């Protein structure tokens, strides 16, 4: 395997739901330590793309490779792939019947076989890093939406994923809670985490992303550095989208 293989490579991916072709030949790469944001209207296929990468959906054509290895080959064990990918969704990420610490330590202990004491120590360390060290014993419903999302990110990090998938993680939050969550993502980016992130936060994409992909009706219509795609887009539909959202 070449050392230069991107962490994630999505090549000509097609996905149908029944007759509806939701992804129509999507190609994008995420290199190590890069933050790639996926933008586009509701229904353009962002979540479906994320779900395909995490093997929650079976693709109809194309190839998805993690570290140069085809993960969409039917012989690949999806659980094995998912262990290497951390995922945070828009909402309802945490198990409501478990406290914060148990939420974070579950996968390391059960899936990765980390001894309980070590998993707890790591959870405490990560919580401290995001300023939530005093919340280890709380249940999710006692936390604000922003705190819940930061715990969800911590939980995703607890297994040392190769790739972090973030699907509109601030969309369900009250506006005043968005900043704390985005700040955390920015810190992770600065620390070198490899991230694929669907977002409507254009200011964030402009400041933090290395690369922006504009998805339109299941196609990457335009992609490039944020200053180009967000600042001086070539495609009229990108311009229309940005004019509506900003
Ligand atoms: P986005 O995340 O950009 O809003 P989605 O990936 O959620 O877009 O949806 C893209 C399209 O696929 C939409 O038309 C949506 O209705 C459709 N879709 C998503 N999931 C399913 C599903 N499980 N079954 C049928 N259609 C779906
Ligand atoms: Mg979505």
Automatic annotation (TrEMBL):
InterPro entries: AAA+_ATPase, ABC_ATPase_HisP-typ, ABC_transporter-like_ATP-bd, ABC_transporter-like_CS, MetN_ABC_transporter-like, P-loop_NTPase
Membrane topology: Peripheral membrane protein
Taxonomic superkingdom: Bacteria
PROSITE patterns, sorted: ABC_TRANSPORTER_1 (PS00211), ABC_TRANSPORTER_2 (PS50893)
GO MF, any single term: ATP hydrolysis activity
Primary location recorded for the protein, binned into one broad class: membrane
Signal peptide boundaries: none
ABC transporter domain segment(s): 8-242
Homology family: Belongs to the ABC transporter superfamily.
PANTHER family on file: AMINO ACID IMPORT ATP-BINDING PROTEIN (PTHR43166), GLUTAMATE_ASPARTATE IMPORT ATP-BINDING PROTEIN GLTL (PTHR43166:SF9)
Protein name: Amino acid ABC transporter ATP-binding protein
Annotated source species: Phytoactinopolyspora halotolerans
Lineage: Bacteria, Bacillati, Actinomycetota, Actinomycetes, Jiangellales
């Amino acid at each position: 395997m070449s050392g230069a293989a991107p962490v994630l490579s999505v090549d000509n991916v097609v996905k149908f739901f029944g007759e509806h072709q939701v992804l129509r030949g999507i190609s994008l790469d995420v290199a190590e330590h890069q933050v790639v944001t996926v933008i586009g209207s509701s229904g353009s296929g962002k979540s479906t793309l994320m779900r395909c990468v995490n093997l929650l959906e079976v693709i109809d054509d194309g190839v998805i490779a993690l570290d140069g290895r085809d993960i969409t080959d039917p012989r690949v064990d999806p659980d094995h792939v998912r262990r290497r990918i951390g995922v945070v969704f828009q909402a309802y990420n945490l198990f409501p019947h478990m406290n914060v610490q148990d939420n974070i330590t579950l996968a390391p202990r059960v899936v990765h076989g980390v001894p309980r004491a070590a998993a707890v120590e790591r959870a405490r360390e990560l919580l401290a890093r995001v300023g939530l060290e005093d919340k280890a014993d709380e249940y999710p419903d006692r936390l604000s939406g922003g705190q819940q999302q930061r715990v969800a990110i911590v939980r995703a990090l607890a297994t040392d994923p190769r790739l972090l998938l973030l699907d509109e993680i601030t969309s369900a939050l009250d506006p005043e809670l968005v900043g704390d969550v985005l700040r955390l993502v920015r810190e992770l980016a600065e620390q070198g985490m490899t991230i694929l992130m669907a977002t409507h936060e254009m200011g964030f994409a402009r400041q933090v992303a290395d690369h922006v992909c504009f998805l339109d009706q299941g196609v990457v219509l335009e992609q490039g550095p944020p200053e180009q795609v967000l600042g001086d887009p070539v495609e009229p539909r990108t311009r229309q989208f940005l004019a509506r959202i900003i």
